[in-house]
What does this fold into?
Amino acid sequence: MVAPHRDALATLAVHGGAARDAHGSPNPPIYNTTTFAFDSTAALLDVIEGRRRGALYTRYGMNPTLYALESALAALEGADAALAFASGMAASAALFLALGRDGIVCVGDAYGGTLELLGEQLPLLGIKTWLLQRDQLDRLDAVLAEGAGLVFFETPSNPRLELFDIAALAAIAHRHGALVAVDNTFASPVNQRPLELGADVVMHSATKYLGGHSDLTAGALMGSRELMQAVGGWRRNLGSVLAPETAALLSRSLRTLPVRVQRHNASAQIVAEAMARHPRVARVHYPGLPDAAGHALARAQMRGFGGMLTLELHGDGADAAAVADRLRLFALAPSLGGVESLVTQPCTTSHHDLSAAERQRRGIADSMLRLSVGLEDPDDLVADLVQALRAGATSPADERR
Ligand code: PLP
It folds into this structure.
């Protein structure tokens, strides 16, 4: 394939995993099989002993449908190699077990499941973890000096869309010989390519933008061949590989990723600007707003601001729940990144399992509503939000809007 222009992600999305079969199918065939037969023991040993890259056994990831998906995933993030997993959490768990055994530092907010794994479950196995908020970043050097081997963070983060400087954090981690892994789920490779900024591994819940249609559950890691090989051994024996049928569905979705994400970006900007003007909205967390805390950094390290935003409403958790319940186009459902708009109240979904005190410490207010802006007409989405906010208006001035 002709090397695409650096920005030609659209070309990579369509051709990155191209593996035409013997019949010329432009889509990777679905090898829905657990095992592959060989003509001879010598041919089998060539594959097992790595002299030839062949198909062998699907749980090992050695299946052509997975190979096609993984080359597309690697191409999109500018990585040498990629691994596909049964879910985003499966990807994170394999990453932490393979590369985080010397200790893991999580910087900033993260998805609730990631926080539970890091904060409660991995320590049960004797793996040391540190959860540092932005105002504790001055401790990072000391924690790394204690021997932590992996720095992990989301940017933009869930649910406050907080930005972290990938190049700066990578420089600190690398000074101590630690690796850096970035959960790039919210941005997608269309808006941000962490490996180009110095990260060692990129992680995705492919359930979100990469899949894009709320019809598949998958995860991915991208990085150097050496690191992916180290994690691949864990994936093999944790048994967390992605099923071939889902891999083919994800390959299909990747082809439209740039087009979808560009539309998510444009619509989220329109919704964010409209909500920033609304009197019932105390604050809009969206990196595309010029007065957002992370705006300058977003302009420097992102190519688009993404389809996710979080509203902080005036009022309490019950007021926010009432607004969510009145929305008609935004479906009240956890998850994000699909063609349809979704709304969640983080304290009842993604961050429900954190204690109220921990949510407060992280600035995750009960009055927050997280929006995943879908591909509907953005004016319809704004109108839906305005009607839901109007119905719960508490003052005559609000009522007139
Ligand atoms: N990372 C982020 C940012 C997420 O939002 C999620 C899920 O919501 C995950 C990881 C976990 O992904 P999955 O549900 O595919 O296991």
